[in-house]
From TrEMBL:
GO terms for biological process: negative regulation of DNA-templated transcription; spermatid development. It comes from the Eukaryota. Residues 110-137 have a biased composition (Acidic residues). Keywords: Metal-binding, Zinc, Zinc-finger. Residues 722-739 have a biased composition (Basic residues). One of its GO terms (cellular component) is cytoplasm. It comes from Rhinolophus ferrumequinum (Greater horseshoe bat). This is Zinc finger MYND-type containing 15. Pfam families: MSS51_C, zf-MYND. One of its GO terms (molecular function) is histone deacetylase binding.
Length: 739
């Protein structure tokens, strides 16, 4: 079996959700529109019988006048492979944001076709600022065969043609566009961008996305450049019906108690239609983006079948009745997963193990915070939680789908996010609610005057000493430095006592396959507060790091607020910790190497650490693990689930012949439960921690380290009442690495 819930980028899961729902909406809208008027009456009657949602629903009308979308071409001249639906729907386990840039680009529609905006990296790094244009273009690109537009009863054909002509009318243009080579900027470009003239969104008042529709004008200059909101009633009405009968977000079909519309003209046109659905229309249109000041799109979204990947708005999903871990759409998919070959990837092989993993859910959710029950729930809405606390900027946008506020300086995701703010002397500015305002809310209290008297082994102890309230969500960001602290002070002394690591005055640590943790680099300043007697060097290594940061280094010094820049050798910033150290200065050096770990040259480190590793999900680990085997340094890794730890042990055995230590829950794991798309297992950032067990050198006389010692369970009857017991288990095969 293969689960990537703890590793997939949320942006890409969101893109797959948009595509899947929109594709279904277009097909069903055409089917209803092509039928007699009685079908509409039948649909309206069905919606009137739905239970009522107490939340207010909002129909957003978002016109777009200046930005076009170029699809299906690479960054170099000539036609590219296009952004296929298979990539978007998750056939490849790991698809990163940067993978979208060769296929989707933004162009200006105001000053001609040749002036492309160099915004690919910025738009992807800005969270969801361009979610709709990037992914909304994808459904348009893949729905050339979409049926004719629906038309509610009582609406004229002319209105339907005006509202829907954009999608159908530009199909030939788009087919032509895909075969034409794209010229670089400054040359005559034959590829004509698409213009998404208007975006219709249906949400509830809390931000849960319930439906989406796109109005594509086609080629630049060939469509009206108006507001894009004329004659939208047929499209909007069809969208509302589908959003109630088949909501994109989680939850059963339902109708709202009240609807408000974000456009005055469309509000007037819907006054005679909305009552047919048994829904009350607000007296006046909505004049702002959302009905609440803290409105934001919610991360609470539909789930998928583990086998066929259909979303919960398409089919009813139920967990396996024996392990309750894996979601299936029905008996057929459960049977197919039970019979997978080879046997060690079948659900029959994993069912009892997954049941054991599910039993750890309560233990992982045992945290001291006042908000624990909310953030460890399977229905946790991360964006709403952060927005309610004003945490919509700085590092908080790196761990969520929140859109940075107006006027916020943008830094492409994956670039060095803190160098521009590093020189201001405040190491905690990016951790506050608004790091770009001097009077923004400070979430980190001053450093205590006295160093810690003992070692911290829990969030409760650390929060008490640090002066943090248990209502503070800072643990979500501080999980990275506190995990490093826990490894240094607890795990290395237990597993490698001969190193006497706690008495060292300096440590060189390699953070391997770094990515998100480097985007949050300033949180590691807290290590200087917790380990005041040590000078630390953190070297972030990985081919996922921004190439422009390769070989950069900078030093954070604790003895004053002055700033100095050393040209050619990095940046040195003197940051004040609020205390004066005795016996000399202890600094934190940050180095960056944007390359796979096995290609890194340099001195041997004292310690290697990796966060949420996923050995089986990236081929470079098959080279990096043997490199670690040759160095034989203490190497500790975290995983977001116990399942991931088992898969890492198998990959370690394949790559080196070694193994891993038994995983143990990390007391400094993130309190935020990660959303799992196709399963109900508990996933948390840095949930478990283990270290590598190296294969003894040849000729040492020691017994070789065992491979992945997975006990073979007794084959159980498949979780279906009429299913016969399978025959005897096939001979075991070697461990199979995940794609």
């Amino acid at each position: 079996m293969e689960f990537v819930s703890g590793y997939r980028d949320e942006f890409l899961d969101f893109a797959a959700l948009l595509f899947g729902w929109f594709h279904k909406f277009v097909a069903e809208r055409g089917a209803v529109g092509a039928s007699v008027e009685g079908r509409w009456r039948q649909l309206e009657a069905q919606i009137r019988r739905l239970p009522q949602d107490p939340a207010l629903w909002v129909l957003h009308v978002l016109p777009n006048r200046s930005v076009g979308i170029s699809l299906g071409h690479g960054t170099e001249p000539g036609p590219g492979p296009g952004l296929g639906a298979a990539r978007l729907l998750g056939d490849e386990p790991l698809l990163h944001l940067r993978d979208l840039s060769p296929y989707v680009s933004f162009v200006s529609l105001e000053e001609g076709e040749e002036e492309e905006e160099e915004e690919n990296g910025e738009e992807e790094g800005a969270g969801t600022e361009k979610v709709e244009p990037e992914e909304d273009g994808e459904p348009a690109h893949n729905s050339r065969e979409s049926p004719q537009e629906s038309n509610p009863p009582g609406e004229p054909e002319e209105a339907e043609q005006e509202a829907g002509g954009g999608v159908d009318g530009c199909r030939e243009d788009r087919a032509e566009d895909e075969t034409r080579p794209e010229r670089r900027k400054g040359q005559s470009s034959e590829a004509v961008p698409l213009h998404l003239s208007c975006l219709l969104l249906v949400t509830d008042e809390h931000g849960t996305l319930l439906g989406i529709d796109l109005l594509i004008d086609g080629a630049q200059g060939s469509a009206s450049r108006g507001s894009g909101t004329e004659n939208l009633a047929p499209r909007a009405y069809a969208l509302l019906c589908h959003s109630m009968a088949c909501p994109m977000g989680s939850g059963d079909p339902r109708r709202p108690r009240q609807l408000t519309v974000g456009d005055a003209q469309l509000h007037r046109e819907l006054e005679s239609l909305i009552p047919r659905l048994g829904v009350k229309l607000a007296k006046t249109p909505m004049r702002t983006w959302g009905p609440q000041p803290d409105f934001t799109f919610a991360s609470l979204r539909a789930r998928t079948c583990h086998v066929c990947h259909r979303h919960s708005f398409e089919v009813k999903l139920t967990p396996c009745p024996q392990c309750s871990a894996v979601l299936y759409c029905g008996e057929a998919c459960l049977r197919a997963d039970w019979r997978r070959c080879p046997d060690d990837v079948s659900h029959r092989f994993w069912c009892s193990r997954l049941a054991a993993f599910m039993e750890r859910a309560g233990e992982l959710a045992t945290l001291p915070f006042t908000y624990t029950a909310e953030v460890t729930s399977e229905t946790f809405n991360k964006e709403a939680f952060l927005a309610a606390r004003g945490l919509t900027r700085g590092y908080w946008t790196q761990i969520s789908m929140l859109i940075p506020g107006p006027g916020t300086p943008r830094h492409p995701r994956g670039s060095t996010p803190s160098l521009s703010l590093l020189l201001n002397g405040d190491p905690y500015q990016l951790l506050s609610g608004d790091p770009y305002q001097e009077d923004g809310p400070a979430l980190m209290p001053p450093v205590p005057p006295d160093p810690p008297r003992g070692l911290f082994g829990s969030w409760q102890d650390y929060y008490t000493w640090r002066g943090l309230s248990l209502d503070s969500p800072m643990a979500v960001l501080l999980t990275y430095p506190l995990t490093v602290y826990y490894v240094i002070t607890h795990l290395v002394p237990q597993s490698f006592p001969e190193l006497n690591i706690q008495n060292k005055q300096s440590l060189k640590i390699h953070v391997v396959e770094a990515g998100k943790e480097f985007d949050l680099v300033m949180v590691f300043w807290e290590l200087l507060v917790l380990l005041p007697h040590m000078a630390l060097e953190l070297q972030f290594v990985g081919d996922g790091l921004p190439p422009e940061s390769d070989q950069q280094h900078f030093t954070l010094q604790r003895d004053g607020p002055e700033v100095s820049v050393r040209p050619g050798s990095g940046v040195s910033a003197r940051l004040s910790s609020g205390t004066k150290e005795k016996g000399g200065r202890r600094d934190l050096q940050i180095k960056v190497s944007a390359r796979p770990y096995h290609l890194l040259q340099g001195p041997k480190p004292d310690l290697v650490i990796g966060f949420n590793s996923g050995f089986g999900l990236k081929d470079t680990w098959l080279s990096s693990l043997p490199r670690l085997q040759s160095l034989r340094v203490p190497a500790f890794f975290t995983e977001s689930s116990e399942y991931g730890c088992v898969m890492d042990e198998q990959t370690m055995a394949v790559a080196t012949g070694g193994g891993t230590s038994p995983p143990q829950p990390n007391p400094f794991r993130s309190p935020f439960r990660l959303r799992a798309a196709d399963n109900c297992m508990p996933w948390y950032c840095n949930a478990f921690v283990f270290h590598l067990v190296y294969k003894p050198p040849q000729g040492s006389g020691a017994r070789p380290a065992p491979g992945p010692g997975l006990p073979v369970p007794t084959p159980a009857a498949p979780p279906a009442p009429a299913r016969r017991r399978r025959g005897e288990k096939k001979p075991g095969r070697g461990p199979r690495r995940r794609r």
